[in-house]
Design a protein that fits this description.
Blueprint: E1 2-6, H1 10-21, E2 25-30, E3 40-43, E4 58-61, H2 70-87, E5 92-98, E6 109-110, H3 121-135, E7 139-143, E8 145-147, E9 162-165, E10 167-168, E11 170-172, H4 173-184, E12 190-193, E13 199-200, H5 201-212, E14 218-223, E15 229-230, H6 233-236, H7 247-251
Helix pairs in contact: 1-4, 2-3
């Protein structure tokens, strides 16, 4: 299996290592190159028109936007994806999306069947990219908040930081990598990838304070939006099981 990882960053590097361990060929496509054992590096900017890309049996599109404005989103998630699909016809595609498409504010549960009433322009762009991926025969994986080595974020919850109310939906980077593979190898074309337990921000702050011996942040009643609880039931039905089933197992080694 020849794998192409377009956008080899936080999740992509972990996916590359997983694929190499499985004995598969991996090429990482980035603007400036990567240095990973067992991984071929290929420099290209897929947001440019008609990029030349290596042949592959399977492509993982994991590109991140360079900013949060709508133009940056469209260039990275729609234009870059379209260019990649056009350059790699008849190649299996897995597209990394976000649970940010759910604008739910009331803490209710959401999953792949939840109807999305998009009001934000960035949400419309994300959904347009998902539609492009699925119409191309690809599989879409909506990730919750990614964390792991190099991305912990304890300062947002401790030592006087303001911590608003509401739920977080998290997934550690290593589990995100295996989720991509499980989704590709299964029957549906849309999966939500989070761990087994949404956590209230206040509970996470208290837990982190206890584990680190630092002061808990300033817990306020104002709710940060969106505010929802994401279900991973469909993804777990494929046989996928997160190595780090909750934030406790996932964060503990770093604290």
């Amino acid at each position: 299996m020849r794998n192409l990882i377009v956008g080899c960053g936080f999740v992509g590097k972990r996916l590359a290592r997983e694929l190499v361990e499985r004995g598969e060929e991996v090429t990482a496509v980035t603007r400036s190159g990567v240095s990973l054992e067992g991984v071929e590096s290929f420099e290209a900017d897929v947001t440019d028109d008609a990029p030349e890309l290596p042949e592959a049996d399977r492509v993982f599109y994991l590109v991140s936007a360079g900013g949060r404005d709508t133009d940056a989103y469209r260039k990275a998630y729609v234009e870059g994806l379209r260019n990649t699909v056009n350059a790699l016809e008849d190649t299996s595609l897995v597209y990394s999306s976000s649970t940010g498409v759910y604008e739910t504010d009331d803490g209710s549960w959401v999953d792949e069947e939840t109807e999305i009433d998009a009001t934000k322009e960035r949400t419309h762009v994300l959904l347009e990219a998902e539609e492009l991926a699925r119409d191309s025969g690809g599989t879409v994986v909506r990730f919750g908040g990614l964390y792991g080595e190099g991305r912990i974020g304890t300062n947002r919850y401790l030592d006087g930081a303001t911590v608003k109310a509401g739920y977080l939906n998290l997934i550690r980077g290593e589990d995100a990598a295996t989720a991509l593979l499980a989704a590709d190898e299964s029957d549906e074309d849309l999966y939500v990838a989070v761990d087994n337990e949404p956590v209230h921000r206040h509970d996470l702050a208290r837990w982190m304070a206890e584990k680190t011996g630092r002061e808990v942040g300033n817990l306020v009643e104002e709710t940060r939006t969106p505010n929802k609880r994401c279900s991973n039931k469909r993804l777990r039905s494929t046989g996928w099981t997160p190595e780090y089933p909750t934030y406790r197992e996932g964060y503990a080694p770093f604290l």
